[in-house]
Design brief:
It is built from 24 helices and 31 strands. By secondary structure, the protein is of the alpha/beta class. The chain has four domains: 2-158, 3-Layer(aba) Sandwich (Rossmann fold); 201-358, 3-Layer(aba) Sandwich (Alpha-D-Glucose-1,6-Bisphosphate, Chain A, domain 3), CATH 3.40.120; 364-600, Alpha-D-Glucose-1,6-Bisphosphate, subunit A, domain 3 (Alpha-D-Glucose-1,6-Bisphosphate, Chain A, domain 3, 3-Layer(aba) Sandwich), CATH 3.40.120.10; 616-739, 2-Layer Sandwich (TATA-Binding Protein). The strands form eight sheets. Strands 24, 25, 26, 27, 28, 29, 30 and 31 form an eight-stranded antiparallel β-sheet that branches. It has a six-stranded mixed β-sheet with strand order 9-13-12-10-11-14, with helices on both faces. A hairpin with a 5-residue loop joins strand 27 (665-668) and strand 28 (674-676). The two termini are 56 Å apart. The mean pLDDT is 92.
Amino acid sequence: KAEGERSIEAEMKKGGGRYHIVRTSWLYDNVGVNFFTTMVKLGQERSKIKVVYDQRGTPTYAGSLSDALRMLVLKGGDVKSGVLHFSDEGVTCWASFARAIFEELEMDVEVVGITTSEYPTHALRPANSHLGGKQFRTLLNLEKRTWKESLKMCVGSELERVKRRAKVWSKAPYDKETRDTVGMWLSENKEDVLTEAFHKDITFGTGGMRGICGPGTNRINAAVISGATQGLVNYIKKTKQHSSTPLKVAIAYDCRHQSYEFAEVTARVLAGNGIQALLYPELRPTPQLSWTVRNLGCVAGVVVTASHNPPEYNGYKVYWEDGGQIVSPHDSAIIGEVRKIKSLSEVKIASREIASEDLITLLGPEQDEGYLNAILKLRRSVSLEENGSASCLVFTGLHGTGSVSVPPALRAFGFSNIHEVKSQSLPDGNFPTVSSPNPEEGQALAEAISLGEKLGATLVMGTDPDADRVGVAVTNGDGGFQLLNGNETGALLFDYVIRCGRDNGDSYDSSDFVASTVVTSPLLSAIGESYGLGVRTTLTGFKHIAAAITEEEKGMNGRNFIVGAEESYGYLIKDTARDKDAVAACCVLSELAHSLEENGTTMLARLESIHRKHGLYQEGLVSIVKMGREGANEISEMMSRFRSSTPGMLAGEKVVGLLDFETQKNHDLISSKVKNIDLPKSNVLQFVTEKGSRITVRPSGTEPKIKFYVSVNTTLQENDDYLEKKTALTSQIAALFHAVGAA
């Protein structure tokens, strides 16, 4: 700074002109990157913040400085050249300034004062940065204003900033309904509603975006969707500018409110930028979109969906040319392009008439047939052609896209005794018959299980709204049904798919591989290894399994993917898609149940035989909800405690290993050896005990939760009581949850 001042003085003296250098201190505003906006952001995330208290100075509002500079330009003709000091009046410390900010904003945040030595920075900060602005004010006859008075003006102008953003949406080119709604909010001064809708831009994350529908920059609506699509287009054009083939993007959508509208807007923006949009005219499952991207040679794909979120939500999920969800480096680069779009004027959107003539193609039934044929290649049972009515199947799409695709796929597979839950068979974004359309939750399958009990069904299945995950209930031998968790269903699929391949002449070796995630049961890997297959373990999320498939496909050895699963009810068999596929999984699971029934046995009996061969594994999951800023802070502190204080014992089991996926280090706590973890960074910790138990802790990426996963195992001797062993493992899981504070 000093060198800059000297340089300016030297240049100005050479020319003989008048000049003023104005020094200020602790400059802040409610926009940009500065102390005020940083405190607001941190206060939204945490309930307690540490701030330095032994540095003093005068906070200066940018509005105060701009007023002073304007007066200097207008009335400073008689002011002598040189250096002037300007700041608001009064002195405080950073910690007290932070407390004042939260008090004015009525935010319940505790500020803890710390010393400068406790918060090291690259640049040394002086203990006293106070500048006296009295001379400046006297020369220009400026009104005295304390820093606290200026802070009130800044906070007041934050609402004005929100209102300015909202006023833009109350005029053209926004649609009439949006203009009327936002105009009503403004005229009725609905401050809370305006602030929630306009205080920030909705986050476009590594998979896309998801949020509440409605007007505003922090909501899902046609304007936000169009901006996101323009950002995607800009990235596509940067990376594919030398492409010799026409650029195409496939689009699908689920049953949620406004899904078709958002899909159509996406198509029109693509068309407006000269990119061919391939749009499904009716709702289709997410895995079919993944298959379509690959089948039609698209550069990308978009699905309008919010998975199992509440009815008021919708979302926008992006796929790349391999058919998988975007991963590095595409994800961060696309996010960067989306953030650059600041107004609708930057969006090129074609009219419906022009777009439909040239650059929007409605996908026809041939794509449905192609996807179905890809699934039919997974069929192994010959007896279905003659005896498909023997197995009674009950299915529910939970008001989503599963009802469009799963029953036809089951019939094509050879099943004819299929019963849908009628009250849940029609698409309905309100999901009126369930509290949550999530097949991981038992209540979602309650009506289907009730129907299954009445019919004496072999198998009950239910898919989520975009049909990429499936929940399963199997007969328990007493006329009732038992829900399987994702690990149990995954184990049955791994065993069946691999075994059928071997029995049909497939010769497996390490050039073939299976895949699961770091929080999925080790049983799945054990099954794959027992057949001589390679095993890939990825981070949580099926996009990482898809990326592993693509990586192996492009590798020197070109390894073949056989089957993959994650504990959260997602499965993929062979290469029908590059994302979890509940449509294909329903067909193969039904074939497995049919095959077992033909041989006089059941899914539960088969699961027991798998456990007796590979070891009895049992898992548990506890999610602890921590709402709001305080909750986010608690989750952060919990992860910090686990990371800094590795427990020596957990429920009587010695901890022998710690895998920290954030530092990418695998610590052997016995030998003190450290190995690298060849996976991307992720805020996940995994403890391993001497008994082979695994306790994994991670914050949820989409919900205000911290998740605890426990996996335990034991061997089963020929005469061991199966249920007794399972009961013992259940107790062991409970003890481990208690030991980590998740009971």
